[in-house]
């Protein structure tokens, strides 16, 4: 099994587990899956093919596919930001794929673009971890008040991956 087949299998399995489908346009879908494969080889994690990663896992955690924004985007717009995952009505052609506003916080976008070789080749020499440190990223412990799920990250997820509670159901664990 090739790496691309593994990426596809993982995406199909995740889509089924959430009641989603993969984009019905085969050529477009293959481009997205190839982007995931390339990002996984490049960064050692499958960051979204539709967003710029800085290459530092902790800073990119929110855009590791499936990203933190997928479920809320699919619920509200019928598909995720890159349209890899779609709702049934979109898959069946009953609803169009339409543009989705970016939910990723501005600081994370700036951090990724600051690292991008297109915008700053000097940052390549510094390395992503320097950018993460200089940006003031502070990870914290969060727990879901509904099911007890715990995560260690900068912000709580938009939706709990276990019980689907919304972000407001998360509280910070202070040590």
Task: Give an overview in words.
By secondary structure, this protein is mainly α. It has two domains: 3-134, Alpha-Beta Complex (Ferredoxin Thioredoxin Reductase); 140-173, Rubrerythrin, domain 2. The chain is built from eight helices and five strands. The chain has helices at residues 3-18, 26-43, 57-60, 70-77, 88-91, 106-115, 122-126, 128-134; strands spanning 21-22, 85-86, 140-144, 150-153, 170-173. The protein has a three-stranded antiparallel beta sheet, with no helix packed on it. A hairpin with a 5-residue loop joins strand 3 (140-144) and strand 4 (150-153). It is globular. The termini are far apart. Mean pLDDT is 83; it is low at 116-135.
Write the layout of secondary structure elements.
Layout: H1 3-18, E1 21-22, H2 26-43, H3 57-60, H4 70-77, E2 85-86, H5 88-91, H6 106-115, H7 122-126, H8 128-134, E3 140-144, E4 150-153, E5 170-173
Helix pairs in contact: 1-2
């Amino acid at each position: 099994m090739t790496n691309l087949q593994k990426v596809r299998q993982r995406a199909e399995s995740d889509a089924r587990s959430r009641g989603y489908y993969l984009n019905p346009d085969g050529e477009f879908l293959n481009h997205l899956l190839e982007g995931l494969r390339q990002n996984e080889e490049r960064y050692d994690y499958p960051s979204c093919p539709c967003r710029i990663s800085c290459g530092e896992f902790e800073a990119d955690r929110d855009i590791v596919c499936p990203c933190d924004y997928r479920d809320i985007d699919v619920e509200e717009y019928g598909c995720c930001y890159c349209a890899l995952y779609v709702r049934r009505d979109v898959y069946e052609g009953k609803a169009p794929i339409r543009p989705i506003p970016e939910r990723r916080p501005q600081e994370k976008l700036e951090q990724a673009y600051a690292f991008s070789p297109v915008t700053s080749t000097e940052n390549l020499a510094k390395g992503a971890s320097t950018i993460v440190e200089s940006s003031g990223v502070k990870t914290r412990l969060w727990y879901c008040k509904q099911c007890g799920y715990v995560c260690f990250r900068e912000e709580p997820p938009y939706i709990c991956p276990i019980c689907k509670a919304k972000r407001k159901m998360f509280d910070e664990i202070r040590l």
